[in-house]
Amino acid sequence: MRIIICRHGETDANLEKRLLGVIDRPLNEEGLRQAEILGEYLSQYNFSSIYSSSLSRSSQTAQAIEKYQKDCGVILVPEFNERNFGQYEMKTWKEVFKEIPDLRKRWKEEGEQFCFPGGEILSNFIDRVQGAFRETISKHEVREDIAYVAHGGSIKAMMGWMFGSDKTYIPHLCAQDNCSVNFFSFDGNNFKIHMINYTGYRWDTDGI
């Protein structure tokens, strides 16, 4: 099984380095362009299914991939939505650290039980993403190719499940750029990493 996991395209909130969790924001013009290039790049694969979070920035990216596929629809999975950052949604990291100066210390001490005020406990977020990811994987044969479009935090949770990472460590896994590609394979027993956070395909089709 070949598993392609992609982060959604750029939003204005991403550009402004704001915490964008469950608040729904669409792709901006650059994000739409990125998604189109991603869809063309992934046309080399024949996906059985494309799974996406239910948030617009993810589903728009998934639809761009679907456009280049045959007989393959987008399946929205709300469990793949990004973590709820509570009252710090749409704030910049600078604003967050100004209001919570000891954020790093609290996060380290509380570990997987860390929660932004009014938001989602880290372990709960990881459990919901991993549960849905495990379920979707189980629906497919080893010979199939499947695609996922989600968010930075959600992708790290998926990776953490595949390779047994500690929940406290999962948020610190490899950063995910907009429309990055993560390529894994599964032989029915073990997962293998082939590419992480790959965006080099953009330069080959930058004139699209």
Instruction: Please state the average pLDDT score.
Output: 94
**Number of E-type strands:** 6
> Quick one: biggest sheet?
6 strands, mixed
Low-pLDDT segments: none
Number of distinct helices: 8
What structural class do helix, strand and pairing data support? alpha/beta
Strand order of the largest sheet: 3-2-4-1-5-6
> How large a portion of the residues is in β-strands, by DSSP E?
15-25%
Shape: globular
Share in helix: 25-40%
Distance between the termini: 30 Å
Order of helices and strands: EHHEHEHHHEHEEH
Q: For the CA atoms, what is the radius of gyration?
A: 17 Å
Structure description:
- This protein is of the alpha/beta class.
- Helix content is 37%, strand content 17%.
- The chain has a six-stranded mixed β-sheet with strand order 3-2-4-1-5-6, with helices on both faces.
- The longest helix has 17 residues, at 122-138.
- It is globular, with a radius of gyration of 17 Å.
- The chain starts with a strand and ends with a helix.
